[in-house]
Amino acid sequence: MTLHSTHADIVCRAASAGKHVFVEKPLTLTVADARRAATASREAGVVLQVGHHRRFQGATRRVKGLIDSGELGEIYQLEANLSGPSGGSRTGWRSDPAECPAGSMTGLGVHMVENLHYLAGPVKCVSAFCSKISSVGNLDDVTNIIMEFESGTLGYVGTAYGIPKVFNTAAFGTGGNAWSEDEGKRLRKLGIDPSAVEVADLGGLRGGNDTPAETGARARLLIEAAISKLDAYDGFRPENAKMLIAWEEEMSRRSLFTLPPVRYEMIPSIRGEDCFAADGCRICSNLCPHNALAVSPEGRMILSKGRCTGCGACVSACPAGAFDFPGASLPQL
Ligand code: SF4
Ligand code: SF4
Fold this sequence. Notes:
By secondary structure, the protein is of the alpha+beta class. The protein folds into 4 domains: about 5-50, NAD(P)-binding Rossmann-like Domain (Rossmann fold); about 55-190, 2-Layer Sandwich (Dihydrodipicolinate Reductase, domain 2); about 195-265, no CATH class; about 270-330, 2-Layer Sandwich (Alpha-Beta Plaits). The chain has 7 helices and 15 strands. It has helices spanning about 5-15, 30-45, 60-70, 110-120, 210-230, 285, 315, and strands spanning about 20-25, 50, 75-85, 125-130, 140-150, 155-160, 165-175, 175-180, 185-190, 240-245, 260-265, 270, 295, 300-305, 325. The strands form 5 sheets. Strands 4-5-6-3-7-8-9 form a 7-stranded mixed sheet, covered by helices on one side. A two-stranded parallel ribbon has the order 1-2. Helix 1 runs parallel beside helix 2 (about 30-45). Bound molecules: iron/sulfur cluster (2 copies). One iron/sulfur cluster binds near residues 313 and 314.
């Protein structure tokens, strides 16, 4: 492991010897050194690769996929934070502010800068704050960076030593929010507010003496509305929906084509493999205001669709993140 300040010279020497180079992050400590290393590699025709492995973590790649597919709409904000407790225990050059400027930036935060660059592309302008809060160690404790990307998106990167581990990369857009947690192992996503998409009120379109063509047109509308609803909720699955039909009149064959609006209530589902109900956890069932959660004789937490109102209390409370709640909006949670 070599000092950060030596990376540029080593890259240049390796490139001039015709060697491909893999350099651990940070590439260099200055822009001038980074350009020098890149130019030397380009001119020598060798590959210069930088060790930013965190962009390849599963959930982070999925966030990128959601942005690229347009599912998150227009991206307004990006956030990333990589922090940990280890600052005061660093020794040697790793505790030297000249080798590790901006506290945990070179050790941790640089990964998150790279992640946001991966998500949103080139940065137009940047400002940063560093602060030394504790008396432990030589390095700054906390660094915050604000970025404006060329696309107009704004981004924030936080990094700190001396606090419990944090590892999140998030994108917030007009079509939904998605974030990668827990070293990219877990993806969270909140879709658009379901109230933004309503099934057409076919009851209001009913005519007194429909012709077969009109009946057919109404049936087509009904089906198209149902498909629109399903399309609207990314990740929508039968176990995450409770269909409510407000019957106001007696049901007949004819009334099938004059249905009142169908409403879908979003409800959570439980991923059994993540739930530790078998180990005695009862947090969600103790909390549920509608007694919709109970443990089966086999020790599995079971959700009753009939009782559940989709309030989301269990989703927020579960320490294992064992609930799926696609298509829900933040206010609902
Ligand atoms: S709170 Fe989460 S882990 Fe605990 S029983 Fe409920 S679903 Fe399972
Ligand atoms: S969403 Fe609300 S009502 Fe449904 S199971 Fe969870 S806590 Fe109970």
